[in-house]
């Protein structure tokens, strides 16, 4: 699953740790999602999108085979 978390964090000028605090997960979880090693739950994806003021589909994109 592709995502634009790194870009969206840069726009807001927030760190992985700050995003993690806002959505109540660890920084390591945010890192794994950014590196596309972990697909977030629907609830977590919605929380992340909300922080950025975006729709889930604007932050996350399904890839072939997902």
What does this structure look like?
With 66 residues, this protein is mainly alpha-helical. 59% of the residues lie in helices and 6% in strands. The longest helix is centred in the last third of the chain and has 11 residues. The chain is globular and about 30 Å long. The N and C termini lie close together (7 Å).
The helix/strand order is: EHHHHHE
**Contiguous helical run count:** 5
Rg over CA atoms, rounded to whole Å, is 11 Å
CATH architecture: Orthogonal Bundle
Name of the top-level CATH class: Mainly Alpha
Q: Strand portion, in percent?
A: 5-15%
Residue stretches low in confidence (pLDDT < 50, at least 5 long) are none
CATH-assigned fold name: 434 Repressor (Amino-terminal Domain)
Number of domains: 1
Which structural class do you get from the secondary structure elements?
mainly alpha
Question: Portion of residues in helices?
Answer: 55-70%
Number of strands: 2
Mean pLDDT: 97
List the helices and strands and how they pair.
Elements: E1 2-3, H1 5-12, H2 16-23, H3 27-34, H4 42-52, H5 56-59, E2 60-61
Antiparallel strand pairs: 1-2
Helix pairs in contact: 2-3
Task: Provide tags for this entry.
two-stranded antiparallel sheet; 434 Repressor (Amino-terminal Domain); mainly alpha; 59% helix; 66 residues; 5 helices; single chain; globular
Question: Quick recap of the structure?
Answer:
With 66 residues, this protein is mainly alpha-helical.
């Amino acid at each position: 699953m592709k995502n634009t978390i790194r870009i969206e964090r840069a726009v807001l000028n927030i760190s992985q740790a700050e995003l993690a605090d806002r959505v109540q997960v660890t920084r390591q979880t945010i890192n794994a999602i950014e590196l596309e090693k972990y697909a977030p739950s629907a609830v977590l994806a919605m929380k992340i999108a909300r922080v950025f003021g975006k729709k889930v589909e604007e932050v996350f994109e399904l890839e072939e085979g997902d």
